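INFO  loader      accepted 1 record
INFO  loader      residues=185
INFO  predictor   begin
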Amino acid sequence: MAIEAGDFKTGLTLIVDGDPWQVIDFQHVKPGKGAAILRTKMKNLKTGATQERNFNANVKFDAAVIEKKKVNFSYMVDNTYSFMDMETFETYDLSEEQIGFNKYFMIDGLEVNLMLFEGSILTVSVPATVELTVAETSPAVKGAPSTQTKDAVTDTGLSLRVPQFIEQGEKIMVSTDDGKYSSRA
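INFO  predictor   done
INFO  writer      dumping tokens
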């Protein structure tokens, strides 16, 4: 299916130069003279690299068909993350490079989606928020404003800022988009 650059939307996946790319952001630009262009920020789904590119609004691309497969995170050994399909019991191993920032959200039994393109695994897609345990944080400061935050480290190694009232050992919800505190669990 052909997609014109003028029909871009955030999250769209398409094939550019033989690789699958995802549109992160885009902007239509109409210069004083000449044809309109589309200024885009895109992420290469194979390498994880982001790039800003400009296209004429009438250029056509093929849609990248990204298959999703539900799996559960099983364990990690030597920077290799293992996942299991709970229906077929087939296992999949991904490197830390393929997992990327999502490594901070890998907890036993977490259900994720493997992202596949033409049969090869690209990466994993995690839920919007995950429940993590605070492994390290300083005690609350008496009399501190309720809006004040402090440093904390989760059991998965993620460093983030949390409200003063959060204690060590407490479970919190963390946004997987930016790794920020969402709420108490």
